[in-house]
Amino acid sequence: MTPIRVVCQNTLNLSLNQARRSWSAKHTGNVQNRMHEARETLGLAYKYMENLGKEIEILSRIKLSDSKVMEAINDLIPLSKDASDIQRKNVEQLRDDVKIRYFEAPDLKVLGKNWYRFINAISDHATHVKPLRETTTYRENLFLKTLEGHPMIDKAYQMFEAA
Fold first, then answer.
1. Contact assessment for residue 127 and residue 146, using Cβ atoms and an 8 Å cutoff
2. CB under 8 Å to 122, separation ≥6 — which residues?
3. How many CA atoms lie within 13 A of 58 on its CB side?
4. Which tens digit of pLDDT belongs to each residue from 33-46?
């Protein structure tokens, strides 16, 4: 659950230390149990939103220079020294996509140059870039990755924590 809207109606999934990504509540049993589960679910939602707000504030306060952004993009999308020409082209294409999202996306420009903007750009890239090879289960796999914690978004957040 998140109130963040990234260009379309897909959501940004931040790795919050104190919030679970998902939970469930049974829809069977007696009314008292259902009321308790509803209260618990609302409490988890409130706690998540409270932690998310704090996290966004922290991410927004830490400024990033353009050179730091470029370095972070290169670290997130590495290019091996023995890469073939095709691999090099593919990596450059992915890096360029992230750069465009970070530096030029109108909805992100208003955020200032900071970690919050960077993670939004990474999330936008990770959940919207056309894959190099699109499989029949691509959309389902992307949905599960995003729900469970997309590796690229999580890595970007870990980079922020290490900075």
1. yes
2. 76, 98, 152, 153, 156
3. 12
4. 777 777 887 888 78
Helix or strand or coil: residue 114?
A: strand
Residues in Cβ contact with 130 at an 8 Å cutoff, skipping those fewer than 6 apart = none
Chain centroid to Cα 3, Å, comes to: 13
Q: How many CA atoms lie within 13 A of 145 on its CB side?
A: 15
Long-range CB pairs of 5-10, under 8 A, 24+ apart, other chains included: 6/107, 6/120, 6/123, 6/124, 6/127, 7/105, 7/107, 7/124, 7/128, 8/128, 10/127, 10/128, 10/146
> Of 78, 89, 64, 59, nearest to 152 (Cα)?
78
> Of 131, 128, 130, 107, which is closest to residue 117 (Cα–Cα)?
107
Which residue is listed with tokens 């894959």? 131
| Separation CA 132–CA 3 (nearest Å) | 30
The answer to whether the beta carbons of residues 108 and 121 sit under 8 Å apart is yes
pTM for this prediction:
0.71
